[in-house]
């Protein structure tokens, strides 16, 4: 039994402690945002946030995660009420096959929490570990830029 | 009266000594020249210079991240402070455009700039001084035919008195005794070529030889291992910690492609070195391997045969199954073993050969090394993809592994996989490596 905090909610999981987080998320907690791509920590399709930092959930056993703050795509918004990054990714029509997008969004989320107004260099550097086979990179970069602008505007309006 | 006379004589002697020191330390400027046109150098010379510049790693230190090639400005951390590399493009104001061949050769051989100021030995003139006239001429032709770039290097950040360049005259008097390269007639041409490059332009000892408190290489301990930019530069030759002795073929392969299955992957400051050597002439790299192999191996170490990975048709594991499968640990096994099984085994136990699989950790020099620093750097920084070269990659685990998990993992790797005594003071080593790795993981470990 391992206790995890996923998207702010405490969950007790029965998978063995060496089970990769990705399998626990998808098979046990039915959070299917993170995807199995390469299984080797090389493509980024499985990226989630742990204490605000992106990690590859396919090579992260749950035994490392007790007491830590795990966030997945589902924690950023819903289909009805998408979060700012999710909305921007939809507006820019970033998805071709869409398989990499959850990981892209999670790594972009970590970037925007660290650098709210990223330059293109920041975006490219941050997303470098995330692979997209369809070649939608230009749209993805635009979406991150748009999300940053939208978030800045929203926080201006909220002042 | 007598005391006054003694004091007077002492003062006189000190003044004389100071004057002598100044005479020794003083070097005149070499007259500036009009920057020569790139077309004034012959093509063969430029091409030869380009390959020598690769072996000398010129661009590696003389290029800042994101900056123009050879335009300098790279911050080089030293135990004494930060030194910034200079612009060696032929810009007349900020580069070496006004330097004659004579001035360039004097810098390489004596560590003086055109105006006669002493250069810091972060510029390894203690090695470059071996370079032949002909090679200096080719290097000069290569550098002076580059596009000039206007770029002023930031001022060095060094404390007093090291910030006074005259002090370097004393350093040179103590530690710098250049001699022209003398071939060993009893050895073959490849050995002599290899030694010339290894000891000279390639300046291997600058990292792989330990340095004394004043930053000079300890010549009596040549290749006994050193340190560079937070990485251990492993001992070479008879000092080597390799599990399987290096052969000439293995050295050649490692230097050219950047990894070798029986030893490991070139990382940290060695990564740009092998990237340079990948483009250098094959026979020069082979000569370096030939010479390095002649340095010998530690006594008592015996070559052991390694089981070849299943590579024949039908034997290579199909990717999907192997990616998903981790070797399931039995109940009650150590935490380190569990972490390894879940986080590392899908590559390091995959039986896929390099660069597609992970290094065989039982053979890794990194695990056999005296200190855990390189292993920690690899875990914290990962192995970013190398631009334009086929090389292994590895994700970093800085965010997913806390210190306790890392301690457990290193304990397992060191004792159970490498069969070596535990590394002492692991928590301190982990904290130090995390501090050093933090800026680059924050900026994205991938360069």
TrEMBL record, chain A:
* PROSITE patterns in the cross-refs: 2FE2S_FER_1 (PS00197), 2FE2S_FER_2 (PS51085)
Record keywords, A-Z: 2Fe-2S, Iron, Iron-sulfur, Metal-binding, Oxidoreductase
Molecular-function annotations in GO: 2 iron, 2 sulfur cluster binding; metal ion binding; oxidoreductase activity
In its keyword annotation, does this UniProt entry include Cell wall biogenesis/degradation? no
Name the UniProt record assigns to this protein:
Nicotinate dehydrogenase subunit A
Q: What is its EC number?
A: 1.17.2.1
Metal-binding among keywords: yes
Q: Which residues form the 2Fe-2S ferredoxin-type domain?
A: 1-76
Q: Which Gene3D superfamilies match?
A: 3.10.20.30, [2Fe-2S]-binding domain
Any one Pfam family here would be: Fer2_2
UniProtKB/TrEMBL annotation, chain B:
- Positions of heme c 3 binding: 344, 347-348
Q: Which residues bind heme c 2?
A: 204, 207-208
Map out region (Disordered) in residue numbers.
Answer: 302-327
Q: Please share the entry's free-text remark on the cofactor.
A: Binds 3 heme c groups covalently per subunit.
Q: Which residues form the Cytochrome c domain?
A: 44-147, 189-293, 331-417
Superkingdom of the source species: Bacteria
Where does this one sit in the cell?
Answer: Cell membrane
Q: Which residues form the signal peptide?
A: 1-19
Naming one, the record's GO cellular component terms include: plasma membrane
Name the chain's protein.
Mono/diheme cytochrome c family protein
Species assigned in the record: Ancylobacter tetraedralis
Lineage at the top is: Bacteria, Pseudomonadati, Pseudomonadota, Alphaproteobacteria, Hyphomicrobiales
């Amino acid at each position: 039994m391992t206790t995890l905090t996923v998207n702010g909610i405490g969950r007790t999981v029965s998978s063995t402690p060496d089970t990769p987080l990705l399998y626990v998320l998808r098979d046990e907690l039915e959070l299917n945002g993170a995807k199995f791509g390469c299984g080797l920590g090389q493509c980024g399709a499985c990226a989630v946030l742990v204490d605000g930092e992106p990690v590859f959930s396919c090579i992260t056993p749950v035994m490392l995660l007790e007491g830590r703050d795990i966030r997945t795509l589902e924690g950023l918004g819903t289909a009805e009420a998408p979060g700012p990054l999710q909305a921007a990714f939809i507006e820019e029509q970033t998805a071709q096959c869409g398989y990499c997008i959850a990981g892209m969004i999670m790594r972009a989320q970590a970037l925007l929490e660290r650098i709210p107004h990223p330059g293109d260099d920041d975006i490219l550097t941050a997303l470098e570990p995330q692979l997209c086979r369809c070649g939608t990179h230009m749209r993805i970069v635009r979406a991150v830029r748009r999300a940053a602008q939208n978030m800045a505007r929203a926080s201006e309006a909220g002042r | 009266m007598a005391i006054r006379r003694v004091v007077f004589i002492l003062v006189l002697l000190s003044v004389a000594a100071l004057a002598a020191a100044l005479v020794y330390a003083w070097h005149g400027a070499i007259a500036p020249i009009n920057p020569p046109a790139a077309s004034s150098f012959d093509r063969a010379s430029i091409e030869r210079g380009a390959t020598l510049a690769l072996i000398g790693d010129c661009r590696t230190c003389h290029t800042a991240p994101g900056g123009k090639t050879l335009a300098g400005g790279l911050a080089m951390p030293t135990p004494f402070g930060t030194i910034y590399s200079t612009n060696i493009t032929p810009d007349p104001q900020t580069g070496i455009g006004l330097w004659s061949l004579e001035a360039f050769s004097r810098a390489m051989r004596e560590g003086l700039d055109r105006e006669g100021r002493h250069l810091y030995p972060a510029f390894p003139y203690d090695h470059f001084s071996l370079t032949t006239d002909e090679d200096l001429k080719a290097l000069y032709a290569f550098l002076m035919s580059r596009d000039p770039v206007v770029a002023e290097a930031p001022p060095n950040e060094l404390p007093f008195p090291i910030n006074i360049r005259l002090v370097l005259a004393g350093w040179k008097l103590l530690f710098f005794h250049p001699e022209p390269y003398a071939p060993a007639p009893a050895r073959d041409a490849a050995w002599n070529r290899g030694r010339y490059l290894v000891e000279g332009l390639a300046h291997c000892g600058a990292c792989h030889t330990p340095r004394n408190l004043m930053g000079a290489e300890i010549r009596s301990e040549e290749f006994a291992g050193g340190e560079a930019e937070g990485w251990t530069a492993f001992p070479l030759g008879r000092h080597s910690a390799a599990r399987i002795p290096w052969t000439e073929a293995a050295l050649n392969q490692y230097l050219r492609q950047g990894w070798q299955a029986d030893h490991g992957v070139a990382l940290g400051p060695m990564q740009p070195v092998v990237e340079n050597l990948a483009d250098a002439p094959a026979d020069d790299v082979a000569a370096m391997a030939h010479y390095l192999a002649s340095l010998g191996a530690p006594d008592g170490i015996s070559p052991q045969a390694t089981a070849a990975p299943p590579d024949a048709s039908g034997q290579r594991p199909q990717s999907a199954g192997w990616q998903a499968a981790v070797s399931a640990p039995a109940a009650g096994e150590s935490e380190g073993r569990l972490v390894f099984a879940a986080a590392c085994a899908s590559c390091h136990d995959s039986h896929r050969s390099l660069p597609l699989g992970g290094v065989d950790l039982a053979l890794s020099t990194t695990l056999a090394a005296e200190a855990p620093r390189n292993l920690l750097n690899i875990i914290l920084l990962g192995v970013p993809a190398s631009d334009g070269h086929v090389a292994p990659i590895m994700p970093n685990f800085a965010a997913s592994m806390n210190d306790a998990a890392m301690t457990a993992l290193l304990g397992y790797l060191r004792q159970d996989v490498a069969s070596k005594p535990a590394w002492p003071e692991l928590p301190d080593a982990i904290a130090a490596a995390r501090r050093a790795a933090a800026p680059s993981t924050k900026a994205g470990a991938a360069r």
